[in-house]
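Methods — Computational structure assignment.
A single polypeptide chain was analysed. Its primary sequence is given first, followed by the predicted tertiary structure written as structure tokens.
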Amino acid sequence: MNEVMNKDYEPVEVFDYAQYQKDMEAKIVRNPRTNTPIDYISDEKLAQLEKDGITDFRPYIPVPKDIKAHLLFAVNIWIKLTKTYPNDEYLKSLDNEANHHIVLSYDWYKKFGVDKPVL
């Protein structure tokens, strides 16, 4: 982590979180929903996976690769920064359900001198 903080940086949207949610919702094949990875797997495919001994269904969640990479990066850096700066007012302002989408889909971490690595 770079120690240069830029508190004046205005975060930019990396991806449209509302559209991402709509896209993911459209990919659900199970009704009623279970709110688990199997919501994205047909009964036939699920039966085949179970027959093959596959019990980890997370790889079958159809999150686009670039969005998944950003989500993982954002969450990991969020954890590190909130531990490093536990009293930071900006981080505190993001720590609620209303601002959840900012943590996940904006480049807010640049305020703390952190650049997302190019994939």
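Note: The chain has a mean pLDDT of 92.
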